[in-house]
Structures are given as C-alpha cells and as structure tokens.
Design brief:
By secondary structure, this protein is an alpha/beta fold. It has 15 helices and 13 strands. The chain has two domains: 157 residues, Rossmann fold (3-Layer(aba) Sandwich), CATH 3.40.50; 183 residues, Response regulator (Rossmann fold). Helix 4 packs across helix 14 and helix 7 packs across helix 8.
C-alpha cells in the first residue's frame, strides 16, 4: 500500500514539473546574446549622428532642447561650396537640426521650420559667395550662418543684415566683422598643434616640415598654419618649419623664378597686410604682393608650372622631411607631387574626403585631422535659433576633431565620425 502511495506521489510531482516547464516564459537575452545582435542601418545612423553631436562644446549646441522658435522660421546657411563632400555634410547636419526642431515642436505643413543651404558652384569663389549672400538677405531669413571664404569680403552685407535685424553667425571660418553673434568651428590652432606633435613623433624629433596653406585670405587657414608652426617652434627644438607658403600666392613665386631666370633684380614689395604679416617664405615672396613685375610678361609667368614652383620650394629648403597641408586639395596635391618625383615625405592633411581616406589607407598620407562638418551644420542652426529667441550665444562653439591614421581608421569610433 505504501509503495502505491509513493508511486502516485512521484507521478503527481512529475506532472506538475512538466506543466511548470511548459509555462515558463522565455528568458531575455543575456548581455552576450544581445551583443551578437546585428546593428541595423537605422541604429548605425543614429549612433553616428550622436557621436558627432557629443563632441560639440558647449554641449547645449548638440541638441534643440528648449528652442521654441515660431512656426515657419526660416534659417539660411551659406558655405564655401555647393556639392563637395564636406559641404554636403554641413547641409545634412543643418537639416537634421531643423528636423529635430519640427519634431520637438510638432510643426507640420506650412508651420514647419525651414532651412536653405547655398554655396558657390565653384568652391572658394569669393564673388559668387557674396552674390549668394546678397540674394539670401533679400529673402529676409530669420537668421543667417555663413562660412566666409575671405575674412573681410562680406562686411558691407553684414552691415545690411544688422540694419534689417537679421542676426549673423559664422561657422567653419570666421569673419573680421565685429557684429557676428557666434562662431562655430574646429579649434584649428589646437588641432594643428596636435598634428605637429604626431609629425614630430614620426620624424623622431628631427628635420624640417613644409607648411602649405590652401588660402591666405581665410582665417581658418591662417590659424592652422600658425598653430602647427608654433607647436614645432616652442616644443620641438631639433625641428623647424619652412615659413608659410600659400597656394593662392604661387604667382608671386613664379615671378621670383622668372626674374631669376631673366637675370632681373627682385621686384619691390608692398607693405604686408595685417593678416599676412610675418608669413613670408624664405625668399620673402609668398605672402606679400609685388608692386611691379617690370619686364616679366604674363606669358613668361604662364610658362612656369605649379610643379616648378614646388620644386623651387624644395630646392630652397633641402632639409624637408614632412609636409603639413591645411586642406584636402593641398594634401592630395602634395601626395601626387611626391609620388611623381619619388620624394619620401611624411604628409599630414586636413579633412577626410574619399580620395584622402584612400591615400591614408595606402600609406601615402600619415595622418588626417578630421573635422566635424555635420556637427557644424547642426550647431549653426542651434546658434541661429538662439539668436532668434534672443537667448544669447557663446562667442565660440567648438565642434571638435578626430586624429585619424591607418591604424585607427577602421575602428567604430572613427567610422562614426567619418
């Protein structure tokens, strides 16, 4: 009898256990299992967006919290180019900020906040940019942001903007105008100083570096060249830099070469401008205008190629072991030149165009200072909105940068910034 009771008890327990197992809910993924889940394109895009916004300082410029602008507010942004990769990223950042504003404020239809991005069809065309600025001011935007090509080219238009109550902020490259409400950009001196540190490490703290600026009219370019040169001079005693050369001043070196070939004396120089003072080449010709070409004809100047000018620079600076170039165009020109002439140079550039990234992976570039154009576009809209709301702006907003080499370019952190 006792055995039957025990058998029955065991049978009941087994049945209950089976039912409990059947009814047990599915356990959530463990952290290891969750980590193995694939990142969707939407997840990747959101993480990349946030990475670009997280490095903006102050952090308030990386979000639209509390920016209750009026319905149909119209923001204008003007760049240095229309369709180039860098300026396309600026546009995307600005559009993302406006989309976030409309979502936060529940604006739809005609109430939606709007942004128009414009830029010269020929990159860095000052006259075309000024014409675009005139056209935008005639549309009376609520606020305007501009990356000025020439630091002094837009002052008349800025006066007009002030008279019409249109606040102006600058981004990427600042202006000398006193009424600018905020400047949104990379800390170019800091970024270039870091590039100089990496250059010195690579060269073993020895040798000379060619400093090549892309545009002597741009405050951004001047900050980059001077920041790099200052770091080498102050902290790397066994190294030196060439004096600063600018790509838009090559004609002055061409005249120098033409005069030497013709056996003519050097042309007299005008007084250097405030922006270029102290930035002469070793031969004194790349940063000050010559006042009289004498017997040197335009035809004689045209016969001298840019490659011959760079040869002249190298010949007059025989200890060059590295090159610092302040934008993608300058960097890739140096890559091509060194390849053609089989010059073994350590080259550091700025930005991360597709061509530059490819050159970096192939070992033709040592490193890149990668800016945050998406963050610039986003923060510019935030600054414009704060102008409209009269809530005040920081004078300088730092959108950050990333040091990129072949060793870290494939990391998730860097890929999100690219």
């Amino acid at each position: 009898m006792k055995k039957r009771w025990i058998a029955a008890f065991i049978s009941v327990c087994m049945t209950a256990l089976a039912c409990a197992c059947a009814a047990e809910p599915e356990k959530p993924d463990t952290p290891v299992q969750s980590a193995k889940k694939k990142e969707t394109p939407e997840d990747a895009a959101e993480l990349a967006k946030q990475a670009k916004l997280d490095i903006i300082s102050p952090s308030a410029y990386g979000n639209v919290d509390g920016l209750g602008v009026e319905p149909a507010t119209y923001f204008s942004i003007i760049g240095k180019g229309a369709t180039e990769e860098y300026w396309s990223k600026v546009k995307k950042g600005a559009e993302a900020a406006v989309a976030d504003l409309n979502k936060a404020l529940d604006y739809e239809g005609n109430d939606r906040v709007k942004v128009v991005y414009s830029g010269p069809s020929e990159s860095d065309n000052v006259d075309e940019q000024v014409n675009i600025l005139d056209e935008e001011l005639a549309r009376y935007p609520s606020a305007l942001g501009i990356a000025v090509i020439d630091s002094q080219s837009c002052n008349v238009q800025f006066d007009l903007a002030v008279q019409n109550g249109i606040p102006v902020v600058t981004y990427d490259s600042e202006s000398s105008y006193q009424g600018i409400m905020a400047n949104i950009s990379t800390d170019n001196r800091k970024a270039s100083a870091e590039a100089a540190v990496h250059m010195a490490e690579n060269l073993g703290e020895e040798g000379q570096v060619l400093v090549l600026g892309h545009d002597s009219r741009s405050m951004t370019c001047i900050e980059r060249t001077e920041g790099f040169a200052a770091e080498i001079k102050e902290n790397h005693s066994e190294m030196s830099t060439t004096n600063i050369y600018y790509m838009d001043k090559l004609d002055e070196l061409k005249e120098k070469i033409a005069r030497e070939r013709a056996g003519l004396p050097e042309a007299e120089e005008d007084e250097p401008s405030e922006a270029s003072e102290g930035n002469h080449s070793d031969d004194g010709s790349d940063s000050a205008d010559t006042s009289d070409s004498g017997e040197i004809t335009e035809e004689a100047l045209q016969e001298i190629s840019d490659e011959e000018v760079y040869d002249y620079i190298f010949d007059n600076n025989p200890d060059i072991k590295g090159i610092f170039a302040t934008n993608g165009q300058a960097a890739m020109q140096m890559v091509s030149l060194c390849e053609e002439q089989e010059r073994d140079m350590v080259i550091i550039g700025y930005d991360a165009d597709k061509e530059e990234v490819e050159a970096l992976k192939e070992g033709k570039l040592f490193g890149l200072v990668v800016q945050n154009p998406y963050g610039m576009g986003y923060a510019t809209i935030v600054a414009e909105a704060r102008c409209v709301l009269e809530s005040g702006n920081e004078a300088e907003i730092d959108t950050g940068y990333t040091w990129v080499t072949a060793d870290n370019i494939d990391s998730k952190e860097v890929q999100r910034m690219l």
